[in-house]
Write a structure and sequence with these properties.
Layout lengths: L55 H4 L14 E4 H9 L10 H7 L9 E4 L9 E4 L1 E2 L1 H9 L3 E4 L2
Parallel strand pairs: 1-2, 2-4, 3-5
């Protein structure tokens, strides 16, 4: 096969229909829009209109509540941090949000990072996070480390 011999499969590309280009094209005169009326005109958007019937977005009741003060943390567990330290991705002396992000332990900062106590940690580490569970703080301190909770 040569570059000059490459071509699309049959039916892979469909040519666009040029409407309103004469009666012989089959799409002349009204250009496939039918006769008169709102939808025959330009600039029409009738999405969601149900012919005068009460639309579904008004028939259904409003539900739920979006708390404007809610915080969403990126969650990190102790076993994940231990794995990253063992793999050489994290420096145990100073672990902060940026270090976790660069090591690929978290994918987004969100509203901060929360440390949870799943798994075990054996290395003495200094961790700076926005929030931490009591069990996680106890586990890190038991291993000889320290958790700094920053606002």
């Amino acid at each position: 096969m040569k570059l000059n011999e490459i071509k699309d499969n049959e039916g892979a590309r469909k040519s666009r229909i040029r409407v309103a280009r004469g009666i012989g094209s089959g799409k002349g005169k009204t250009a496939g829009r039918g006769q008169k009326g709102q939808k025959a005109r330009s600039g029409v958007a009738v999405n969601g209109f149900e012919g005068g019937q009460m639309p579904i977005y008004r028939r259904l009741p409003k539900r739920g509540f979006k708390n404007p003060f809610s915080v969403s943390y990126a969650v990190v567990n102790l076993d994940t941090i231990q794995k990253a330290i063992d793999a050489g991705k994290l420096n145990a002396a100073d672990i902060n949000i940026d270090a976790l992000l660069n090591a690929g332990v978290i994918s987004k900062k969100l509203d901060g990072v929360r440390l949870l106590a799943r798994g075990a940690i054996t290395t003495s580490v200094t961790i700076s996070v926005n929030s931490a569970s009591k069990a996680a703080i106890a586990a890190v301190e038991k291993a000889g480390g320290k958790v700094n909770v920053v606002a």
